[in-house]
Amino acid sequence: MKLAVIGANGQAGQAIVAEAVARGHEVTAIVRSSNQSQAQEVLQKDLFALEAADLAGFDAVVSAFGAFTPETFPQHTTSLEHLTAILAGSGTRLLVVGGAGSLYVDESLTTQLYQTPDFPADYFPLAEAMSKGLAALRNVKDVNWTYISPAADFEVAYPKTGDYILAGEVFTVNEAGESKISYADYAIAMVDEVEAAAHPQARISVLGK
User: Where is the NAD(P)-binding domain (predicted)?
Assistant: First the structure.
């Protein structure tokens, strides 16, 4: 497949590129600075400067875009608004590296994890911003998107196990009562979804076994 990874220099982006390349896919890194990933092709351009022509011909675009300061938090919404606007009606799929804070803690899908009393206060603004981005994405009907939330404990240093648990909208733990996953195993789940296209216009979540 022909894939583009936006934010390919980030930790999640690099892991996703590495997994996709290892499986034989043709990957273009879309980065603002010099490419640090294993992608075979590079487009050096800011996400918000991308045009429809830049993404034409890709089977799927993966957004591993991140914004981690208060002044950039709104970009979790505006980045998805921009990407869906230029992908609208193209047939190119959009897959988004999401967050765990927007997962629900009840089957009625009423309360999100970041809204619970024990959620770390330091992470609340980021989680709230990412939740707003997902809410905006849910309104998009003319792009085949999939949003993939990682486990609550999402760490680049965790080892690659080659396995994961696929879940849905509700916060899930493994048999040990843990919600954790490595970047490498998350990348496996992401590329699996790229290949299978099994969850159109839906949010899924993944965690380690």
Answer: 7-192
- Under a CB-based contact definition with an 8 Å cutoff, are residues 123 and 151 in contact? no
Which residue segment(s) compose the domain that 113 sits in? 2-207
Q: For residues 138 and 96, what is the distance between their CA atoms, to the nearest angstrom?
A: 12
As a whole number of angstroms, the distance between CA 85 and CA 36 comes to 28
pLDDT digits (tens, 9 = 90+) for 181-193: 999 999 999 999 9
Amino acid identity, residue 74?
Answer: P
Overall number of domains in the chain: 1
Instruction: Name the DSSP class of 122.
Output: G
The CATH number given to whatever domain includes residue 162 is 3.40.50.720
pTM above 0.85, yes or no: yes
Q: How far is CA 188 from CA 21, 70, 121, in A?
A: 12, 30, 30
DSSP character for 49?
G
**Count of C-beta atoms within a 10 Å radius of residue 208:** 24
- Residues 17-59: tens digit of each pLDDT: 999 999 999 999 999 999 999 999 999 999 999 999 999 999 9
Consecutive 10-residue averages of pLDDT for the chain (209 residues): 98 98 98 97 98 98 96 98 97 97 97 97 97 98 98 96 98 98 98 98 98
The two three-digit tokens of residue 160, written as one number: 């690659």
Tell me the CA end-to-end span of the chain in Å, nearest whole number.
28
